[in-house]
Structures are given as C-alpha cells and as structure tokens.
Amino acid sequence: MPGALSSAALDQLFRTARTYNEWTDQPVDEHTVHEIYELLKWGPTSANSCPARFVWVRSAEGKARLAGLAMEANRPKILAAPLTVIIGHDLDFPDTMPRLFPARGEMMRQYFRQPGNAEVTAMRNGTLQGAYLMIAARALGLDCGPMSGFDNAGVDRAFFAGTRIVSNFICCLGYGKPGTPWPRNPRLSFEEAGRFA
Amino acid sequence: MPGALSSAALDQLFRTARTYNEWTDQPVDEHTVHEIYELLKWGPTSANSCPARFVWVRSAEGKARLAGLAMEANRPKILAAPLTVIIGHDLDFPDTMPRLFPARGEMMRQYFRQPGNAEVTAMRNGTLQGAYLMIAARALGLDCGPMSGFDNAGVDRAFFAGTRIVSNFICCLGYGKPGTPWPRNPRLSFEEAGRFA
C-alpha cells in the first residue's frame, strides 16, 4: 500500500501553494490543459455523475468578454493570466448516467431527474471537480487563482448559451510570479473546525 | 519553480485512486486525522472564508447513529469503516471573517451576511474543502469512500444541534481492501466536458 507523498509534494499541493494574481510569462499550452483534465476526471463524484463542464478561456477575445463580466477587482487578474477556466455544471447531466454508470444508469437518470435532485447534485459534485482541477494543476506544477466575484447569469449567457450549463466559479491558471501573493491569512484550528464523535 | 509531481504521486492522488467500501484492519489514528486537517486547511476558499466544519465519527455509538440516518445501502459502509467524517458548512461563517481575513474582515462579514450570500458561499467553499480533505487523505496514503445518500436534516439534528452548521456529504476514511472496488466506470472525454474559448 502507498504511504504518504514526500514532504515536498505535500508542500506543492497544500502547504506552500498560494493563490496567485500575477504570473510569469510562461504560457499554459494546450497539452497541459489536457493533462489537467486527464487527472481531474478521475476524482470521485456521486454515482460517477461528472457534472462539471469547463470553458478554458485563452483567446484575447474570450478573456476580454469574461473580464467584462467580472467584478472590477477581478478584471485585471483575468486579463493578465495565461488562461482562465470557467467551471460550470450541466443540469442535464442525468442524461449521461446510462453511459457513466452502466450498472444502474437508467435508475440513476430517473433519480437525478426528480425535482431538485439535479441542482444540488450538480452543484456539489461540480464543485468537487473544480477542486480536483485546482489540485491537479498544482500537481502538474501550475498555480491557481480562483474567484467567484463575477456575473454568473451574464457568463452563462456569454459562454453557455443554448445549454442548461450554469457557471459556478472561475480560476486563473498559470505559473505564479514568485513573491507576489499577500502574506498568508490565518486558518481555523483543528478544534475550531471540528470535533471527534 | 516546481515541476510535476512524480507519476507515482499522480497515480496515488488521481489515476489509480478509487472509492472504497471495504477496508483493511489498519486503524486511522487521531494523529492522522490531525494531519489530514493540517493539509486541507490550506486549500483556497473565497476570501479565506473556510466555512467547512467536520465531525470525525469514530466511536461505535457515533457510527451507529450516523449509519441509522444513511440510505440502507450506505449503512454497512459506515459501520465497517475505521472512521467516517461528516463534512458540513457553517452558515454563521461570516462572523469568522474579521479573524480569517484581517485586511477587510468587517467588510466581508457584512457582504456575506446579506441574504443568500452565506448559503451559496458556504456550500461552494465547504464543498471545495471536502474535496481538499479527500485529496489530502489520499496524499497521506489513505483511501476515501464519499457518499451523499443520507438524511441531511436528521444528521444536522444529531450532530450539529444548536448551531447553524448544515451537513453536505460524508466520507469514510481508512485503508482500502485491495481488489475490492468494482471495475472503474468511464469518464467523459476532454471534448465532452469542455472546450477552449
């Protein structure tokens, strides 16, 4: 059985990883984006529902469009980043269940089609997949700049028109400029965030 | 700048990691639970809001109580696992903002206190933290068995009474019994799950 990853790996994933807003000139190429997806796709979701959908915004036009729908403080971050991914989730994901969960696909399709079930399942599991995306990017040596300050309805119209995909959060991707993040904020202690039972 | 983690590390985190329902006899000790938290706490959340709260259910009584509130198919999984963590999020998290985000804590507290803001922020960011928990556990050599099939309101009454913490999902933790998971289900291709823009 595997043991713990190396201390350097734990640093890279969690302990010294930071949210970046400034980036080196190193681009994020198409191959790297595929590598991120080929890792994140394996992360667990409820009944393998995989409801997240991704728009990898890398063109000047796409960045300008997305930046125009973001809170003012987030606009320069989007324009400066090599790439910003929109993490959304598809409310029509139940239709993929027969393919993604062959053992009980039709049963799960009907379950997720019941009122309210698609929404909460897509939000929960699409968000999990967004976290897998960020950790996968870090595991590949990239840095992340996640944000939720933008006009979700506007982004849905601009990037998901004609679908039932809704935006969740967005995340800049690139190679963070060393030394640029603010000093790290405190975290809750183990006891403040939980307890044994 | 760091490069990609080793292929073995990427396997352990994503590519060969699986959801387990059966476990070896190896216990999950208190020190390991603290180690999981000390990694996951560094994962990014909106304005460092850290809304997730955790109940690490390890006692026989706690397991029986939680299992009694789970879907029938999930009961034996909870009873068999060394430990099952309830991942919830605190709708009162805005009150922690002055401490967690000193630079603009009072402003963020007021923003998150506006109707509807706490709920969506807690759900999104608490879920991200749940994913960080699973990846942190895998990074430490453990396996996960996440589930959302349980009575959320009942779990809230049983484990979060007198608070505004609500349950999100639960996750068994331990060392997976080799060879026990079902064959792996398919995933969406890169193109099915997204596009460049």
- End-to-end separation of chain A in angstroms reads 28 Å
The biggest beta sheet of chain A is recorded as: 4 strands, antiparallel
SSE series of chain A: HHEHHEHHHEHEHE
- Strand arrangement within the widest β-sheet of chain A reads 1-2-4-3
State the helical fraction of chain A: 40-55%
How would the global form of chain A be characterised? globular
Number of strands of chain A: 5
* Most extensive chain interface and residues per partner: A-B, 78 and 78 residues
Give the oligomer, counting copies of the same chain as homo and different chains as hetero: homodimer
Mean pLDDT of chain A: 97
SS summary, helix count of chain A: 9
Question: Which regions of chain A contain 5 or more consecutive residues with pLDDT less than 50?
Answer: none
What structural class should be given to the helix and strand makeup of chain A? alpha+beta
Strand content of chain A: 15-25%
**Rg from alpha-carbon coordinates of chain A:** 18 Å
